[in-house]
Amino acid sequence: MFVLFETASGFAVFKLLDEKKLQESTNLFKEFENPKKANKLLIFKHFEKFNDTSEALLSATSLLKGKLSKKLKKTLKKIELDDENELLAVADPKLGTSIKEKLNINCISTSVIQDLMSCIRSRVESLIPEWNIDDENAMQLGLSHGIGRYKLKFSPDKVDTMIIQAVSLLDDLDKELNNYVMRCKEWYGWHFPELSKIVPDNTTYIHTVLAMKMRENASKCDFSDILSEDVALQVKEMAELSMGTEIAEEDMDNIEHLCRNVLELQEYRQQLSEYLKNRMMAIAPNLTVLVGDIVGARLISRAGSLLNLAKHPASTVQILGAEKALFRALKTKHDTPKYGLIYHANLIGMSNPKLKGKMSRMLASKAALACRVDALGEGSGSELGVEHRAMLESRLKMLEEGSVTRISGSGKKRAKFEKYEHKSHLMEYKSGADSTLTGTSNVEDSGVKRKFEEADAEQEDNETKCLMAAVSLKNIVIGSNKQKEHIIEMGILPRLLQLMTETKNEELVCEIGTILCSLTKGTEKHIKVIIEVGAVCTLINMLTVSHFRNNDALVDICLCALRSIFMSNVAPVHVVYEENQGIPLVMSLLQIIKSSNSWCKHECVINILAHSCQNAEHQNTLCTYGVVDVAANLLLSPVYKVQLSSLFLISQICYQNEAVSAVASNASCGGRTVPDILEEMMNHDKTEAMQIAAARCITYLYRASALSASDKRIIFKALPTLCRLCKRDVDAIVRATAADILAYMTEIDTELQKTASICDHIILSLADYFKWQPLISNASNFISYDLTADATYARKCDFPVSRKAELEFSQEMKQSAFKAFASLGANDEEIRKKIIETDMLMEHIVSGLSDNNNRTRLAALRCLHSLSRSVQQLRTTFQDHAVWLPLRNLLNNAPDDWHRVHYVIFCLNFHQQNRHVICLFCIHTFKSCVQHFLDRTAVELLCGLTKREEPALRLNGVWALMNMTFQTDQSVKMQILSSLGTDQIFKLLDDCDSNIVLKTLGLIRNLLSNKPHIDHIMSLHGKQMMHAVVMILEGKNSSEVKEQALCILANIADGESAKEYIMSDDD
Predict the structure, then answer these.
(1) Distance between CA 382 and CA 370 in Å, rounded?
(2) What integer pLDDT is reported at residue 947 of this predicted model?
(3) Are 887 and 926 in contact (CB under 8 A)?
(4) Alpha-carbon distances of 215 from 195, 228, 240, 246, 280, rounded to whole Å
(5) Stated pTM of the model
(6) Alpha carbon 547 to chain centroid distance?
(7) What does the alpha-carbon distance between residue 514 and residue 470 come to, in Å, rounded to a whole number?
(8) At what angle do helices 970-980 and 982-989 cross, to 10 degrees?
C-alpha cells in the first residue's frame, strides 16, 4: 500500500511495509514513538515540491473541491505500482474518487488512514529527507492567507451582504432625511411659518430656504429656478405679512448648514439607490424584474441571503416581514396576514384592493421560483422574470375585467367586479374671455390706431404716448385671435418693429415684445405675416447686439416669441445656423443657457434648437457646437418642462444619425450616461409624457446603432414601457404615440418582436385602437411629438384630445395600429398567426385600403405586406375578405404623384417606397390569385411601370409581369406581349440594373414555357427572341444572367417548330 501525504510544501508518497499493523494495532501512535520505529513502518518514495505559493494555492483549492490538480497528477504518475490491485491511502474520499476516475488507481480512505496521516505529520521531519522546517512554516503562512482570500472572494454570501447593507442604509437614510426635513421646517418655521403650507414639497422647501435665507430677502430673490411664478409671488406676499419671529444671523447660518446637509444626503441617497439597483440586476435579475429592486433587496435582507430566500417556500415569501402579525393572528385565532414585504411590489400596488391577496399569492409563487433560478441557476439572464411578469400582468387584467370563470361551486360562473368610473364634468377654457374690450370688438373703435398716428405726428421722442398705446394694444391682443387678425390687417407691425429698434425706453421695448409674443401664439397665418415683416431678425438682434440684451425680462419675452415662431411649420429654420455679427445664432442661444439659471430661458432655447433640426446637416452642426452635452445636462433639471424639451431635442438630433447618436450615448452628466438617465425617466413614477419621450430617445439611439438590441435598457425598460403605454386605460394620444415608437423599435429585430409579443395584452390592445371613440372627459394637456408627412423629422403637436377632430384622430389611431402590427409580424410566423386571428382585423385592413386618408391607406398596405408573408394562412383569408378588389383599385386609380411621394410613417422608414411597390409585393406573394388582376387596365399599368425612370418601379413592374405569365393561358401571354412590345423588352435587357435584366429574362422564360405557346409565340416573335438571347450570351453579363438565357434556349428547343430557330441561327 502507498500513502499520499499532503503538506504546504508539496506532495509526499510513502510505501507502507506492514499493512497488518494498521488493522491489528489499537494505538497506531505507538508505532511512531521515535523516528526509528517510523522508518521501519514507512519507506519514503518521492517528494514533489511546489515551486511557489501560487502553485501551492492552486493545488490546495483543487484539493478542497476534491479534484485532481496538475501537480498531484504529475506526482502520482511517477509512482511505480507493484500490482494493479495496489492501494493508495488518501485523506479525502472525494479525492480518492477523482484519482480512481483519472488514473485508475484504487484508493482507500478510512478512520485508520486518518490516524496514519496524523502519525506521519508528527514525524514528517525524519520521514522526508528533503524536509526544511523554515520553508514549511513560510509556505503554511502564505497558503493560509491565500486560501482565506480565495474563500472570501468566492463566497456566495458576500454580494448578498452588500445588498443587505445597502438596503438597510437606504431605509436609515429615508428616516434620517424625514427627521432632518421635519427639524428644518420646525426650526425655520419660527421665522417664516407660512412657507411650509405654500411649499409642501420637502426638496423645494429646502431650496427655497437656501435661496431666500431671511424672509426680508424674499422680495429681492429670484425663485424662477425653484418655484412657479404663482407660488413665488405668493411666497413674496406672505413674507411681508408673516407672523414669524425674528432670528439672528447665527441662527440662520445653522439652518443653512442643516439644509445643505439634507441636500447632500438626498444626493447620496440617489447614488445609493442606483448602486442597489445595479447590484440587484446583477445578482437577482429575475427577482428584480418581478418585485423591483427595493422589495427584492428587503426580502433578501429579511431572509439573510439569496440562498436562504431560495430555500423558503412561496407561502413564507408571501408573508416574509409580517411575522408579528402572523403570530398575533395565530394567538388570537384571527385571520392570518395575506402579505408582508411583498405588499410594496408594483404588481400588488396596481391591483384592486379585493385582488391584492390573490395577486400577492401568485406573485410570491413566481418570486420563489425566480429566487431559485437566480441563486442556483447557471444563467444570468432575466428571461424567466420577464415571462412571469407578463403572465401576472395578463392575469391581473383578466381578474380586473371580470373575464375569469369559476370552476368550483355551481358550474362556471362569471366573476363580477365593480369597476370604478370617474364621472366628473370637465370645464373648457374660453379664450375669448381674455379680451378686455367691452361692447364692440372693432380695434379701430378703441382708438389704438389713432394714438399711434398722433404719436407719429408729434415729436419722435414723445415715448409716453407710444407706451400708452403699446399697453392698450397689449391688453387687446392677449387671448383673442380675432383681435390679432385686426392688428395685423391694420399694418401696425412695421411701426412696432421700428419703435423697438429705435427707442431707448426699456419699458416700451418690453411692451412691444409682449405684443409680438402674443401675436406669435395666434394662427399659422399670423406667424407667416410676422416673419415677412422681419420680426425674427429684430427679435434676434434684441438677444445678441442690442444694449437691452442684459434685460432678463426682455430676453424671456423675445425667446418666448421665437419659440412660438420656430414651433410653426413656416419657421425660417436657416436663421438659426446663419451668422449674426460674426457669431452663429446657435452659439448665442447656447451662451444664454450657460449664463443663466432661468428655466424659462432654458425651455425656450431648447425648443428653438429642437424645431430647427430638420435634416442630417442640422444634426451634425448642432452636435459640433456641443448641443448634445447641453441637452444631457438639462435632463437633470428640476423643472419638468425643461426635461421634456431636452428629451425632444435629443430625439431630434439623434434620429437616423449614427455619428450623433454615438456621441449622445457616450455623453454623461452627474456621473451617469444619457441612456442611464433615460432609463430612470421611464419609471412608473414619472408622467406618461416623460416616459414616452424617454422611450423615443432610447429607440432612436438603438436604431442609429448607438445601442444594441440586447441592451438591458431596451429589453427591460423601453420595450415594456411602450407595451404598457398601449393599454386601454392610458390616454389615447399616448397610446397612439407608444404604438408608433413600438413599431419603429421592433421593425428590424426578430428578438424584440418576440419579446414584445410575450405580453398577452399587446395585440389585443392594438386591436382596440380600431374601436377608439373620443370622450370629452379624456381631455388633457399632454404634449406629444409626431413625425411630419413630408420630412423625416419631428414637429410638435400640442393639443388636448377632446379638441382634435374625431375623424382625424380616429385615423391616427388606425395608422398606429397598422404600423405596429406590420412591425411585430414582420418575421415570426407565430406572431403573424396571432395578429391574423385578431377579431375583425382583415375587415379593418380592407376598410383602410379604401380609406380617403392617404396615410391610412399606406399604413394598411404596410400591414398587409407584412402579414402576406404567411402564405399558407392568408391565401384563403385574402379570398374571403376580397382584399384584391381595393388593391386593384389602388393600382388603377393611384394619382401620378404617388409614384414619387416619400411618405414618412412614424417609426417606419419607408425610404423610396410607394404604393405601387407595396401592391406589387403583394402580387408576388400570391401567384395563385393573379386572375384578380387579369384585366386590360392592370396589364397596361404594369407595362407602363416598366418604362418609368425609378429603378424600383421598373423592377417590380417586370417582376409582376413575370409572375402573371407563370403557368397562365396563351391569351394572357399574348396580351402582355402586345402591351409590352419587343422594343421595350430589348430596353429592359439593356438596363444597367442586373436585377431588372434577370427578371426580364424570367418573363421571357415564362412566356416560352408550354410547347403550343412556344411555337405560337416564336412564329410571331422568333427572330426578336433569338436576337435577345444572343445579345445576353455575347454581352458582359454575370453567370446567373447567362444561365437564365440558356434556360430560354432550352425552352425554345422543346417546341416542335420553334427549335428550327436555334438550328438556323449560326450565332
Answers:
(1) 9
(2) 84
(3) no
(4) 10, 18, 8, 9, 45
(5) 0.52
(6) 46
(7) 9
(8) 70
Q: Answer for the pair 381, 359: CB distance below 8 angstroms, yes or no.
A: no
Burial class (CB in 10 A: 0-12, 13-18, 19+), 512: buried
Residue 893: what pLDDT? Answer: 60
Give 914's DSSP letter: -
Cβ-count burial of 533 within 10 angstroms (0-12 exposed, 13-18 middle, 19+ buried)?
middle
For residue 405, list its beta bridge partners: 414
Predicted local confidence at residue 1031, as pLDDT: 85
3-state secondary structure 50-69: CCCHHHHHHHHHHHHCCCCC
Q: Which residues contact 775 (CB under 8 A, 6 or more apart)?
A: 802
CA distances from 1024 to 938, 990, 992 (A): 25, 14, 20
User: 754, exposed or middle or buried, with CB in 10 Å at 0-12, 13-18, 19+?
Assistant: middle
Task: For residue 891, give the nearest of 865, 927, 922 by alpha carbon.
Answer: 922
Q: How far is CA 618 from the centre of its chain?
A: 24
Predicted confidence at residue 548, as pLDDT, reads: 76
- Determine the Cα–Cα distance for residues 77 and 75; give it in Å rounded to an integer: 6
Spacing of C-alpha 521 from chain mean position:
34
First and final CA of the chain: distance in angstroms? 93
Query: Which parts of the chain register pLDDT below 50?
Result: 154-155, 157-158, 405-446, 457-460, 776-804, 895-930, 932
Domains of the chain: 2-152 (3.30.420.220), 158-272 (1.10.287.4070), 284-399 (1.10.246.90), 926-1066 (1.25.10.10)
State the Cα–Cα distance between residues 685 and 683, nearest whole angstrom: 5
Question: Residue 11 belongs to what H/E stretch?
Answer: strand 10-16
- The pairs formed by 225-230 with CB atoms below 8 angstroms and a separation of 24 or more are 225/597, 225/598, 225/599, 225/638, 225/639, 226/638, 227/199
| Residue ranges of E strands in 338-433 | 405-406, 413-414
- Crossing angle between the packed helical segments 982-989 and 994-1007, to the nearest 10 degrees: 140
Residue 901 main-chain phi, psi, to 5 deg? -65, 130
Backbone angles phi, psi at 328, to 5 degrees: -65, -40
| Residue 709 backbone zone (phi > 0: left; psi -120 to 50: alpha; other: beta) | alpha
Residue 271 in grid coordinates:
447614488
Cβ–Cβ < 8 Å for 287, 181: no
Q: What is the pLDDT of residue 905?
A: 27
Q: Could you give the 3-state DSSP secondary structure of residue 795?
A: strand
In the block, residue with C-alpha cell 438639462: 634
What is the rounded distance in angstroms from the CA atom of residue 211 to the CA atom of residue 223? 8
CA dist., res. 626 & res. 937, Å (int): 57
User: What span, in angstroms and rounded, lies between the C-alpha atoms of 29 and 524?
Assistant: 106
Instruction: For residue 5, give the H/E element and its range.
Output: strand 2-6
Q: Which of 521, 409, 502 is nearest to 456 (CA)?
A: 502
R_g over Cα of the chain = 41
- Return d(Cα 962, Cα 949) in angstroms, integer: 20
CB count within 10 Å of CB 331 equals 8
Which helix or strand (DSSP H or E) is residue 510 part of?
helix 506-520
* Cα four-point dihedral sign 426, 427, 429, 430: positive
Count of Cβ atoms closer than 10 Å to residue 467 Cβ: 18
Report whether 51 contacts 83 (CB < 8 A).
no
Taking Cα atoms as reference points, which of 623, 619, 590 lies closest to residue 606? Answer: 590
Q: By C-alpha distance, which of 584, 594, 599, 510 is closest to 549?
A: 510
Q: What is the pLDDT of residues 810-836, one digit of tens each?
A: 888 888 988 988 888 888 888 888 888
